[in-house]
Amino acid sequence: MTSVLIFIVGLAFSVQAFIGFIFLVSCIWEKERRATLFSGLQFMGMLAVLVVFFFLSSIGFFETALGLAVLIAGLLVAGSLAFLLTKRTAPNHQALQGAKGLIVGDVKRYDEREIVFARRRSLRPGSEHYKIFYQKHPGLEEVDARKRAQGGSLGQYIGTIDRPHEGPNAAATLASWAVPIHLSKPDAYNPQPSPNLREEKINLSPEEATEKVKGYAQSVGADLVGITEVNPLWTYSHRGEIYHENWEDWGKEIKVNHKYAVVFAMEMSFEMVGPAPHSPTVIESMRNYARGAFIATQVAGFIANLGYSATANHLLHYDSPMVPLAVDAGLGELGRLGYLITKQFGPRIRLGAVTTDLPLIPDKPVDIGVEDFCKICKKCAVCCPSNSIPPAKDQTVVNGLLRWKLNAETCYEYWGKVGTDCNVCMRVCPWSHARTLPHRLIVMLITRNKFARRIFSVMDDIFYGKRPKPKPAPKWTRFDTI
Ligand code: SF4
Ligand code: SF4
Predict the structure, then answer these.
(1) Distance in Å, CA 15 to ligand 1 centroid
(2) Where would I find the beta strands (DSSP E) of 235-369?
(3) Distance (Å, whole) CA 432 – CA 11
């Protein structure tokens, strides 16, 4: 009996020391100096416990009455803690309803003309559309004019923060930008079936169609794929972004007649987001927007060739904001920072979608504990250089939705200042860590257990700091060594 207990406890201590060791390796691989130091200390502590245990065991301490009592008490405490940290705690029923779980009042559809990108990217001073828009929104004219004078969405120069060495990174960013521009014309986002097909319509059951569309999306580069029925509330009411002098579309009502949306996510590289807000992060954002345009266009083309209507949604052609669609498609939950947080990559992703009338099987929204975690954490709000993320524990009602509402105006202003899309909030979010084995274990625990969320939120502050610093850039993107 005693030897069985000794074996179990010895095994448990060995496993915890092994986890401590792989966490140390993970921190070294992540190039996290502070976390490496703390995980090193933690591993030494775990090793010391293991050594003391084997020493006591070798001198027969656990054969004594006191030793046996210590062994049993230790097992009971450790067993209870393990149970408390791994059992699934009460689900978040709001999250399980998807984006409509956020609705607490009247929701007005977003008008694409009003979003900050459309105002400052598309409207040209002196044009008819400019007059129409600012007559209706006089309060915005001055502030938009000021920002326009500072340059486009990323200011006068991409990578201003890395001047005078930003040139190659700006060149890489703009190379990727060319892809969504190329794919933002109607024949690209609304493809027609190929004339070379033998059949006009290929009959598939919804189950077969779902398997094929998801498989195809993954084969052309999507890392996560989900399906939802389109909730018209999340569709923009009117077109506001214009890229090809198609001004007749500006202000047109957007009608999505498709019942389904295939929503997909692309993982952003951990190494490239690490130096945020420096310029490697904007290369990575744009690379993934290009990937998103490429994937969406091909998936829409695939569905068109099956004989159904499909529309690609990507950086330069959105009929809907992507996050509510992705929440409804079960890819993750909305976080405090305003991005989707996924179980697999946290907010370190970009999204795209294809709407279609091809009958598909929708996925269900998920509860992965994001809302609860964000109430405790607040790291993105603390680290945001423009104070654009609300720090309050609870969400507020905005447009009939209970959520943390990012101040897009001040966030965008900061982008203009640094000449990148910043991404500091994405970098510091505890869900964004590289998916090494220890982080996978942590995510597994925090998605199911509220006590684990509290413990790991505090541990993240201890190991990575309350305000983690940018990490070194990958060599080819270094802006300080040219
Ligand atoms: S940093 Fe913290 S509060 Fe912000 S989104 Fe991530 S988990 Fe939520
Ligand atoms: S992108 Fe930067 S400025 Fe904008 S909310 Fe995130 S941290 Fe703040």
Answers:
(1) 30
(2) 260-267, 310-313, 333-334, 340-341, 349-356
(3) 31
Q: What is the pLDDT of residues 20-31, one digit of tens each?
A: 999 999 999 998
Tokens of 314: 């990507």
Q: What is the pLDDT of residue 481?
A: 57
Q: Which two tokens stand for residue 88?
A: 């699934």
Q: Which two tokens stand for residue 283?
A: 């290369």
Q: Residue 362: in which H helix or E strand, if any?
A: none
Least confident stretch, 149-153, 165-169, 380-384, 411-415: 149-153
Asked if residue 446 has pLDDT above 50, the reply is yes
Instruction: Give the tens place of pLDDT for each residue, 327-353.
Output: 999 999 999 999 999 999 999 999 999
Query: What separation in Å is there between the alpha carbon of 378 and the centre of ligand 1?
Result: 5
End-to-end CA gap in the chain: 67
Per domain, the residue ranges of the chain are 2-86, 93-111+153-475
Write down the pTM of the prediction: 0.94
Helix (H) or strand (E) holding 226: strand 224-229
pLDDT at 245: 87
Question: Which amino acid residue places its CA nearest to atom 3 of ligand 2?
Answer: 411
The whole-chain average pLDDT of the chain stands at 94
User: Helices 33-58 & 450-464, crossing angle to 10 degrees?
Assistant: 110
Number of H helices, E strands in the chain: 19, 8
CA–CA dist 379, 466 (Å, integer):
7
Q: Which residue has the tokens 């930008």?
A: 177
For ligand 1, atom 7, name the residue with the nearest CA.
Answer: 374
Atom 2, ligand 2: residue with shortest CA distance: 422
59-74: buried (b, 16+ CB within 10 Å) or exposed (e) per residue?
Answer: eeebeeeebbeebeee
Structure-token pair, residue 160:
């201003």
Task: Count Cβ atoms within 10 A of the Cβ of residue 386 and give its class: 0-12 exposed, 13-18 middle, 19 or more buried.
Answer: middle
Torsion of CA 85, 426, 267, 364, to 10 degrees: 60
Distance 384 CA to ligand 2 centre (A): 5
Closest atom, ligand 2, to C-alpha of 412:
4
- CB 256 within 8 Å of CB 232: yes
pLDDT digits (tens, 9 = 90+) for 222-278: 999 999 999 999 999 999 999 888 899 999 999 989 999 999 999 999 999 999 999
Residues 253, 336: Cα–Cα separation, whole Å: 30
Q: Where are the alpha helices (DSSP H) in 30-127?
A: 33-58, 65-86, 93-96, 116-122
Ligand 1 atom at minimum distance from 339 CA: 5
Q: Looking at 139-153, 306-320, 328-342, which range is the least confident one?
A: 139-153
Cβ count near 229 (within 10 Å):
12
Residue with tokens 């900061």: 414
Is the backbone of residue 59 left (phi > 0), alpha (psi -120 to 50) or beta?
A: alpha
